Structure formats: structure tokens, C-alpha cells
Q: What sequence folds into this?
């Protein structure tokens, strides 16, 4: 019997590596769904603003003399193309009679670092950068936070005071899958975007199962909103703020593929469906072996950035199966000291979970998720990381894809049902859909 072999080129750092798999072993190549770009990006933006969902046009909601706070993403999200769409948003505000001096741009950095003037300029684009300044939110600046109340989940809602002093808050950003909130965009530009550190960490701690030893909460995951505690808590936090309007983009292949505008809940709901249509990929069954690449640089610049790939690959892998993740990680583990401590300095997953529960942080959770995954699956990284670095985390590190496959076949034999994920950081496998 002749065995047909297929070859794939998978992105790795700034280059590619070859993967050779027998065709009969391949269950599915999990890639984004085909999309047709039939309109220029500017036209997509203008049409969304002209046809808001669940709301009047922004120009009808604002009035002369009113102050408007426009919440924008930080520099890590330049893929959202703020410099392209913000001029159209400002035009809409001007159509409603709002003057330049009454528009405040706040960068929703959440708990991230502040931005440089050049980064602010990049976010606004040349047309707006000479007219406006950007204020970075500071989650630890108690003097510039105002307490609004507590959600039913117990999260104290502290929000940027400058934003709350405005007559209107307009949310911008982009919608993609998010491993905690289900989807980014929308309410995330309130919490964590312009919330206090305490607010963010209390909310994100809902990612853990309430039962010690059970690990991550099963409902807190990418692509889930209905019973996702973090998503629901974020919505409650946003209800204290009551944003006037939302504008979010959906991107594919490096460009704006769609946009939604209007009520911050209704428009985001519509945008989530658009993301699903592009990056939600149906699979008939989970695989014994999943081979996934983050998609090359900068998505695999360090291990921390590869979390999205791991999360998506888990959705396609049988419990006890094997995941091979291609993440060059030339900058090492990434994250902060908490990430490294969680990965390197504990002897069990339960000890890591206890440390996370006692003092929760997002950085710790990301590192914990890697370790918890290695306890449920065989996790092999193809990486430039030191091969012995992650032994305590039970994560195998090898230098080549061929070496990884040799380990898998030696342990499990050949003929393994295999999924291949060339866009692992973006595509979310959905079983039986």
C-alpha cells in the first residue's frame, strides 16, 4: 500500500519549518474560513458608523458643549488600525457639534505599561496627532479613580475619573477571541481597559474553578459568553459606566474585514458573530496529536505571547493527547518575574494553583495555564528555549519539529489522528459545529 505524504510550511519566528505528515493521518487542517474583501477599509468604517446597531448615530447622541471621552486601545493592538478609523469617528462627533477641545482620548492600557508620545502619535495617526493628546489610564493611580459600586460577583468597580467626568464615553477597539473574556473588544475597554488594578484582578480571579484542585473554570474560555463569569462580570461593570456608543473592527489577513457600531452590547454581539464566521472553525472530532504554530514573529517572540496558540490547540486535542507548539521565543519566557516564578519554582500544579489563588495576577495565570496543560496533555515546544528550562513544569522543549515528532511516535506509535493549525493564535476549533 502506497502511503501519500503531505508537506506543510509552518511559520516559526521570521522563517518557516517544514512539516511532513502522512495524508491518511490528517483529520483536518484548521485554518481561518475564506473571506472576500469586496469593500475598501475606509468604506467599511463609514458604513458601520452610518448604520449603528441598537442605537442612534453617534452624531445624534452628542451635543454642542458636551465633553466626550474616546477610549482607544494601546500600542500592543496596532492591528486594529486606530489611525485609520479614528478620523472618521472624530468627524461623526464634529457632525454632532462637539469641538476638538471637548474630546478626550484615553488609552485603555488596563494594567499594561504607559505609552510613549511616539506611540500615542502612532495610535492617533498623523491627521489627529497634531490636534489631540492622549492620556494613558493608570490602574494604580488612586487619585484618578472613582468608585461606582460592586457587581453581583463581588468585584469593586473603580473607573478612571477623567472618563467619568465626561458627558459621553465612546468605546473603540477590535474584536477577537480572548482566552478569559471569551471575546476582546466591547466591555473590555471598561474592564480591564480603564479600571483599577484591584478591579481587574478580582474580575480575572473568576477564571479559577471555585473548587481547589479543579484548575481553570470550564466556562471561562475563548469563544464563550453565555455562562462565562468573567464576561458577565465585565458586562455588569460596564453597566455602571453606561457607555454612549461603541465602534469595533474585525480584522483578517492584516486588514479591516468588518466593523460594528452602536450600543456597546448589541453591536458587540453582532461583531462576535463576524469573528466566528472568520476564525471559528468546525471540527468533527478531537485529535490524538495537534501540531500548531503561533504564526511566527511577533506572535512567538516569547513563551508568554504563545498562550493564545496553546489555548486554541487544547480545544482540538483529546485529553491525554499530544500538542506540539511551534514558538521560537527568542526573547525567552517573556512576561514578568511572576511568570518565571510560576513556571520554574514549583513542584506541582496544585502548588501553583494555591499560589495563584492566594495572590492572583494575570501573569501568574498565563504561566499556570501552561503548567496545567502539561499535566493534562503531553506538551512539547519546538523552541530556542533551553531544553531543560521547563522540566519542573513537565513541558518538553526540543529544537526541531522532526525531534518533536520522533518523541511522539516513539511513545505513541505512528498512525495518530492529527490536526494541523497553521494559524494557531487566531483559529478557534469548535467541536461538532
A:
Amino acid at each position: 500500500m502506497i502511503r501519500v505524504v503531505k508537506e506543510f510550511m509552518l511559520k516559526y519566528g521570521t522563517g518557516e519549518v517544514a512539516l511532513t505528515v502522512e495524508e491518511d493521518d490528517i483529520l483536518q487542517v484548521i485554518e481561518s474560513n475564506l473571506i472576500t474583501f469586496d469593500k475598501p477599509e475606509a468604506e467599511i468604517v463609514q458604513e458601520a458608523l452610518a448604520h449603528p446597531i441598537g442605537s442612534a448615530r453617534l452624531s445624534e447622541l452628542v451635543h454642542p458643549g458636551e465633553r466626550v471621552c474616546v477610549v482607544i486601545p494601546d500600542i500592543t493592538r496596532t492591528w486594529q488600525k486606530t489611525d485609520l478609523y479614528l478620523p472618521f469617528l472624530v468627524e461623526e462627533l464634529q457632525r454632532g457639534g462637539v469641538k476638538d477641545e471637548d474630546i478626550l482620548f484615553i488609552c485603555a492600557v488596563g494594567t499594561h505599561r504607559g505609552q510613549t508620545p511616539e506611540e500615542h502619535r502612532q495610535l492617533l495617526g498623523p491627521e489627529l496627532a497634531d490636534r489631540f493628546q492622549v492620556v494613558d489610564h493608570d490602574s494604580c493611580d488612586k487619585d484618578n479613580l472613582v468608585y461606582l459600586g460592586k457587581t453581583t460577583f463581588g468585584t469593586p468597580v473603580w473607573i478612571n475619573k477623567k472618563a467619568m467626568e465626561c458627558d459621553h464615553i465612546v468605546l473603540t477597539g477590535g474584536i477577537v477571541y480572548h482566552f478569559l473574556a471569551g471575546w476582546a473588544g466591547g466591555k473590555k475597554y471598561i474592564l480591564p481597559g480603564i479600571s483599577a488594578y484591584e478591579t481587574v484582578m478580582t474580575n480575572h480571579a473568576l477564571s479559577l474553578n471555585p473548587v481547589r484542585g479543579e484548575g481553570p473554570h470550564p466556562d471561562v474560555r475563548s469563544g464563550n459568553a453565555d455562562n462565562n463569569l468573567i464576561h458577565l462580570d465585565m458586562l455588569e461593570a460596564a453597566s455602571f459606566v453606561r457607555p454612549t456608543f461603541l465602534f469595533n473592527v474585525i480584522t483578517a489577513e492584516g486588514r479591516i474585514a468588518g466593523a460594528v457600531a452602536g450600543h456597546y452590547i448589541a453591536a458587540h454581539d453582532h461583531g462576535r458573530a463576524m469573528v466566528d464566521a472568520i476564525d471559528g472553525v468546525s471540527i468533527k472530532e478531537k485529535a490524538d496529536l495537534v501540531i500548531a504554530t503561533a504564526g511566527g514573529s511577533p506572535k512567538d517572540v516569547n513563551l508568554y505571547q504563545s498562550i493564545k496558540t496553546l489555548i486554541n490547540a487544547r480545544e482540538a486535542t483529546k485529553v491525554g493527547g499530544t500538542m506540539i507548539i511551534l514558538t521560537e521565543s527568542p526573547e525567552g519566557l517573556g512576561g514578568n518575574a511572576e511568570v518565571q516564578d510560576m513556571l520554574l519554582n514549583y513542584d506541582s500544579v496544585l502548588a501553583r494553583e494555591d499560589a495563584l489563588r492566594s495572590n492572583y495576577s494575570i501573569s501568574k495565570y498565563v504561566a499556570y495555564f501552561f503548567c496545567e496543560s502539561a499535566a493534562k496533555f503531553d506538551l512539547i515546544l519546538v523552541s530556542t528555549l533551553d531544553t531543560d528550562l521547563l522540566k519542573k513544569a513537565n513541558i518538553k522543549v526540543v529544537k526541531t519539529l522532526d525531534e518533536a515528532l520522533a518523541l511522539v511516535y516513539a511513545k505513541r506509535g505512528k498512525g495518530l489522528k492529527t490536526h494541523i493549525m497553521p494559524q494557531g493564535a487566531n483559529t478557534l476549533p469548535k467541536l461538532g459545529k
Summary: Residues 292 and 365 are 21 Å apart (CA to CA). The radius of gyration is 22 Å. DSSP finds 14 helices and 20 strands in the chain. The mean pLDDT is 94.
